[in-house]
Specification:
about 525 residues; alpha/beta; Rossmann fold; Isoleucyl-tRNA Synthetase, Domain 1; 2 domains; 6-stranded parallel beta sheet; 4-stranded antiparallel beta sheet; 19 helices; binds ligand ME8; tRNAsynth_Ia_anticodon-bd; Methionine--tRNA ligase
Length: about 525
């Protein structure tokens, strides 16, 4: 039976429309999910929206609407984004769903039963934007000398009666977890969190009385849960928790929580502590990816540089955007994008290298062999060497992707594409047509097999284009995973069936920079 693999993204605040950071995270998670499927895992992929908390309540007031209506409208845009970017999730969770309230209240009761919750008074610096309390020592000074959170957001002195979670109890178990597993990745985030926890943990305020837009605390009138308690629980809600069997038994603990670097502390300190308290297994890994910057700058309304990810996808193509983001950004680090960088990368690698290889190969088979395929050619050293180079590139991509190292994986893959293009130039099948037609066929069939391997390898990143290409090559829809038959078995099968290559249609068009960038800036 296939091994289960459960991956989640953060659930986004639907207090506005999705931005490029949301698109980046969704795309990366989708590539991981598709890659694991291609590797033969039984995959479950969950995403959604985080609809409670002061931030939502304040935004709704500002817009003259209710938090529930705001959440419903904006959550729809997040779903639309997933559809538009080809994000193949299994579960989209909204934290306002009744099942989520039930799951969160059950987690609360379990933490209470462990003696980890107590009622007290809270005084501290609260940032609504971050939905987090900060220590005086963590604050930084703003330009006018005002106090700001370490993320640079405004803080207010807040006093309220609150339930507390005994986070201080979990310092040692957490350090033990970090030391003995690969719980936090990448390494830089692991080190940050180690240092933070080594510095000591204070108990955490986990309820609010100043507003009511949240999950009610069981048996404590007037208290709603701190939004992060409820938000983190979404990963269990989607599996049907508190039911014990079924999906919880099959999928929990999660294999990977993919999140951005700004919320690593919530996922690697609070979340495992809550789970330990409730007696539940811990997720296997939390990966904190970097931030995406627009020409090196953070997007913000005041700078006027906020980009709609769907407009980018429309301008450049969904597959192009997906490829660019994973190829350009070293996963885990911050990255930058611009129309020029997208076009340059897409043209150099997708259009001129892989697209051109596939197009040249199919069109020479169509023109020079009437589209007919043949098997059983005698192979030269050059043919065998090319097959080896491609096999190495594919294996390199798969290994790197398992390690979430997408840019390196794609680079190794691209080297194999270059090897194929060099082989075409050296073998010059267009001249062999007259001098040695049998050799020309061997060259074209070698290339066709290589194109198939390279296409299947990169399919998780650019699924639409690759499926269109594989359709033209007669690769059956259920034979597009890494475990599918070998290239030679596949070719024999096509020859037996009498499959013919038709006039090919290119799948990676060349992009034109001036037009594209004018359109984006318009
Ligand atoms: O943090 N580049 O929601 P959110 C890359 N509701 N990633 C970015 C980014 C950028 N410029 N900006 C944000 C929340 N992100 C909580 C999560 S999970 C139980 C609750 C990432 O809408 C961010 O790091 O502010 C997070 O992983 C995700 O987008 C949603 O951010």
């Amino acid at each position: 039976m296939a091994e289960p693999y459960y991956i989640t993204t953060a659930i986004s605040y639907p207090n506005g429309r999705p931005h490029i950071g949301h698109a980046y995270e969704a795309i990366a998670a989708d590539v991981i999910a598709r890659h694991r499927k291609a590797e033969g895992f039984d995959v479950r992929f969950q995403t959604g929206t985080d609809e409670h908390g002061l931030k939502m309540a304040q935004k709704a007031r500002e817009l003259g609407t209710t938090p529930a209506d705001l959440a419903t409208e904006m959550s729809g845009y997040f779903k639309d984004m997933c559809d538009a970017l080809n994000i193949d999730y299994d579960v989209f969770i909204r934290t306002t769903e009744p099942r989520h309230h039930a799951a969160t209240q059950e987690l609360w009761r379990r933490m209470e039963a462990s003696g980890d919750l107590y009622l007290d008074r809270y005084e501290g610096w609260y940032s609504v934007r971050d939905e987090a309390y900060y220590d005086e020592s963590e604050l930084v000074a703003g330009e006018g000398g005002e106090k700001l959170s370490p993320q640079g957001t405004p803080v207010e002195w807040t006093v309220e009666e609150s339930w507390f979670f005994r986070l201080s109890r979990y310092q040692e178990p957490l350090l033990e977890l970090y030391r003995t597993s690969e719980f936090i990745r990448p390494e830089s985030r692991h080190n940050e969190v180690m240092r933070f926890v080594e510095g000591g943990l204070r108990d955490l305020s986990v309820s609010r009385t100043s507003f009511d837009w949240g999950v009610p605390v069981p048996g404590s009138d007037g208290h709603v849960m701190y939004v992060w308690v409820d938000a983190l629980t979404n990963y269990l809600t989607g599996l049907g928790f508190p039911e014990e069997g079924g999906d919880v038994a099959k999928w929990w603990p999660a294999d990977l929580h993919l999140i951005g670097k700004d919320i690593v502390r919530f996922h690697t300190v609070y979340w495992p502590a809550f789970l330990m308290s409730a007696g539940l297994p811990l997720p296997k890994q939390v990966f904190g990816h970097g931030f995406l910057l627009n020409r090196g700058q953070k997007e913000s309304k005041s700078l006027g540089n906020v980009t709609d990810p769907l407009a980018l996808a429309e301008q450049f193509g969904v597959d192009t955007l997906r490829y660019f983001l994973l190829r350009e950004v070293a996963f885990g680090q911050d990255g930058s994008y611009s129309p020029e960088a997208i076009v340059t990368r897409a043209n150099a690698e997708l259009a001129n290298s892989f697209g051109n290889l596939a197009q040249r190969t199919l069109s020479m088979i169509f023109k020079n062999m009437g589209g007919e395929l043949r098997a059983g050619h005698e192979l030269t050293d050059a043919d065998v060497a090319l097959g080896d180079a491609v096999a190495l590139g594919v294996a390199g991509l798969r290994r790197a992707f398992l390690d979430l190292d997408f840019s390196d994986g794609l680079e190794v893959w691209m080297r194999a594409v270059f090897a194929c293009n060099q082989y075409v130039d050296e073998q010059a099948p267009w001249t062999l047509r007259k001098t040695d037609p049998a050799r020309m066929e061997a060259v074209l069939m070698t290339l066709l097999r290589c194109v198939r391997s390279l296409a299947i390898a990169v399919r998780p990143v650019v699924p639409q284009a690759i499926d269109t290409l594989l359709d033209q090559m007669g690769v059956a829809p259920d034979a597009r995973d890494y475990g599918a038959s070998s290239d030679s078995t596949w070719l024999d099968g096509l020859v037996q069936k009498g499959f013919r290559i038709a006039q090919p249609v290119g799948v990676f068009p060349r992009l034109d920079l001036p037009e594209v960038s004018e359109a984006v800036n318009a």
